[in-house]
Specification:
13 helices, about 35% helix, alpha+beta, globular
């Protein structure tokens, strides 16, 4: 019996797009839809750059009907359904997954013992927060610099002399004693975790204390986040500590034997792909070769769908590079450029800037992919999406730098 699923290239593309909620009628609607998507993905990446929405907001606006930036704020800082913490670098994930990241908090606690200055001030900081509520590093009455670096900070850690108040807050956040209470722009305010994380989660021991079983959980979670993934080196595995090629090979083998993933052979792609076995009904649906209502969507630069850009290039023929860290003179496109999806294809890219002072969404450029015909239907869908994108960015006016429509 052949246990391998066989898909055409188009069927594989449809599978991934439907799984992501990017094709056909919206699967994810409103606040509950945003929460459902994050639970499906396991985590969405956070990045503080805000040219036309932050990465996490952009990820959700492309999938969730009725999503606003306030929706995410409510899920994070009012309902506390989601939490900010490192996963795939700095991320947002469901609060119920808190116990699974105990090993990261433990590593931060152990790392902190190497900095006596830091430890002496932690109790002072916690007592101040207990008495005064959420604080930023500017509010905490601890002056000077200390030597410190973080064991788990997404950017790789500060190393050297660091503002003492900032270091203490970041350290206590890394150990799980503090959580982010809210943000004002890029400024973070911290509060005691015991006041905001449900007690039963704080008291729950690591559900997967075995290192290998933890790695298996993380790998399956990332496969589910993307939809289809291969057993190859990939940015999709970023920040899974200790995941080496031999471990990854063993994990894929065991997940397959346990019936937790399905092997998929896609037309034109040599490497086997894998999906979560829970997605079997969706694979059966796409094998029926149905057609779906096209939508025009602008994707986030660090969108879950784009975590393996080599896979996107092979499946969709779309080569995307985020050029934010590329020197301006060497950029092919622009500083903060979003992929444009229409139906089952990537049709181009757009550089949009939200000018908050004037309430204007400025469309600096649109680049269409080679071979894409700028039909009335496509251009109408793109213009409609730009208008929706302006509302998402709370802009009342749209300014085009060039004549696109």
């Amino acid at each position: 019996m052949d246990d391998i699923l066989h898909m055409t290239n188009r069927q594989a593309r449809q599978f991934m797009l439907l799984k992501q909620g990017l094709l056909g009628e919206h699967r994810f609607i409103g606040k509950q839809g945003a929460l459902d998507y994050v639970r499906q993905a396991g985590c969405i990446q956070f990045d503080p750059v805000d040219a036309c929405g932050k990465n996490a907001e952009l990820t959700l606006q492309s999938r969730v009907k009725g999503f606003t930036k306030q929706t995410l704020q409510e899920l994070l800082y009012e309902g506390r359904n989601l939490v900010d913490f490192p996963d795939k670098n700095l991320s947002i994930f469901p609060i119920e997954d808190w116990p699974y990241f105990e090993r990261y908090r433990r590593a931060a606690r152990e790392s902190g013992t190497r900095f006596p200055e830091l430890m002496q001030l932690e109790e002072q900081a916690k007592n101040y927060i207990a008495q005064n509520g959420a604080v930023s590093s500017d509010d905490l009455p601890i002056d000077g610099n200390i030597h410190w670096h973080s064991a788990i900070h997404w950017s790789g850690a500060w190393d050297g002399q660091t503002n003492a108040a900032r270091a203490i807050l970041e350290q206590l956040y890394s150990t799980g004693e503090l959580v982010i209470h809210h943000k004002q722009g890029a400024r973070k305010y911290y509060a005691l975790a015991r006041d905001y994380v449900p007690e039963h989660l704080l008291d729950t021991p690591d559900p997967l204390p075995d290192d290998f079983e933890h790695l298996k959980w993380r790998v399956l979670r990332r496969i589910s986040a993307v939809g289809l993934l291969w057993n190859r080196p990939s940015d999709a595995w970023l920040n899974i500590w200790g995941l080496k090629s031999p471990d990854r090979n063993k994990i894929f083998k065991e997940l397959l034997e346990e019936g937790k993933i399905l092997q998929v052979q896609v037309e034109g792609i040599k490497s086997s792909l894998y999906c979560n076995a829970k997605d079997l009904p969706l694979t059966e649906r796409v094998l029926e070769n149905g057609t779906y209502k096209p939508r025009c969507e602008f994707l986030a630069p660090l969108d879950c769908f784009l975590w393996d850009r080599n896979l996107i290039r092979e499946l969709f023929g779309f080569d995307y590079r985020w050029e934010i860290y590329t020197p301006a003179a060497k950029r092919k496109y622009g500083f903060y450029v979003l992929p444009v999806l229409y139906g089952e294809r990537f049709v181009g890219r757009i550089e949009a800037v939200s000018e908050k002072k004037t309430g204007t969404l400025r469309i600096k450029n649109i680049w269409f992919e080679d071979g894409i015909k700028q039909t009335k239907k496509l251009m109408s869908a793109a213009l409609s999406r730009i208008k929706q994108f302006a509302r998402f960015n709370e802009c009342g006016e749209i300014l085009f730098d060039n004549e696109f429509f």
